[in-house]
Amino acid sequence: MRNRKMIIPSLALAAMTAAYAFAEPPKNVVDEVVWIVGDQAIFRSDVEEMYQQLRSEGQVIPGDPYCVLPERIAVEKLYLHQAKIDTIEVPESRVHARVEQQLNHFISELGSKEKVEEYFRKPLPQIRESMLEMMRNNAVIMQVQQKLTEGVTATPNEVRKYFDSLPADSVPYVPMQVEVQMISLNPNIPRQEIDDVKARLRDFADRVNRGDTDFSTLAIMYSEDDGSSMQGGELGFHGKADWVPEFANVAFNLNDPKKVSRIVETEYGYHIMQLIAKRGDQVNVRHILLTPRVNAEDLKAATNRLDSVRKEIVGGAFPFDYAARVISQDKDTRNNKGIMMNKNGNSRNNGSSRFEMQELPPEIAKRIETMSPGDISEAFVMRDASKNKDVAAIVRLTSRVEGHRANLADDYNMIKEMYENHKREEILKDWLENKIKDTYVRIEDGWGNCDFRYQGWVKEGK
Q: What angle, 0 to 180 degrees and rounded to 10, lies between the N-to-C axes of helices 408-437 and 124-149?
């Protein structure tokens, strides 16, 4: 998936887990209604499908699966019913785009469309339909939950009381965290190398336009976008905002599926593309990416220049912040005083300037491990994985917070978020239990002797 990030920098590419709905229904299961929630039935096959998929993913089910899983399905039905009352809908174009992104991820991870079909034991169109329903429902449920919990805030006094009430073993341990500034330079690329790359792409385009070979075959053989090459360069349906502007402008102006685009330059290299289909405000294209190679001499020249910059900063000629703004070629940090921002969606520090060591690029983590706050590293070469190229860099360790049990002085924002999440969970729990009270629920014999998460499923006197 190396260059999926490349063309879609705005996407968070943490892979979504395949939903139980993708799995083929278990064989030899005599179907029966096990729960009724309002006018919606939950079948034994629904529970078995979810159970089978969770087991295949190695997920731990917290309790008896024939208690936990029907309740999960019932809760989903309550949220979806509320969405109908509130007329909550999600844009279909967004759902389709996310499905295509996820399918492309599966294809990239498993190696081919055929292997995806084999894994899920379904043809691709059925997998796509299952994913559409799942992602549509997930998006709707999320909107219902956001509407129910909008306006949740926390005062400093509330945060303090919440923290003081936590048992000692519930106070989270916070690993060492650092804040880092960076200046990077892209080494010069020889003109001949760029000309050679463009000549190869023109040759590919001519061969396709003449009908001598298929675009997809050339993409598999030569494209340097690992995230799409094995799919013949196909990227799936996307909106214009999903891609970097230079790429999107050409992709959305393609009209003839038999013709190849002009060469497009982006920060990731050089591309040619071919239209597959258009659907509303989305387009599906295939592309071939080639990235010019950097030679050792040019990398050395870039590191030598940064070593000179470092000496001037250390000597007081100008501050690191100024050099980052004027010299750095890293677009994500140069207008932010060189400060690196954590974009790991699975991190507690997502969106902040703090990183745990394993969240940093390895070359940076290695340099700052022995540095003290205020130190500036010597120049080094690092791999920009999202762009598949080497760059020269220097880094400054701005701050280091050693590993510790969370406290209000150092970790107020984290504790505040914990408290707000706690408030949201309470609101949703109260809403669900009130909803359960007002909803007709019938649980068939053998399915109700459970310690359910939410109260009220089993009515008194039943």
A: 100
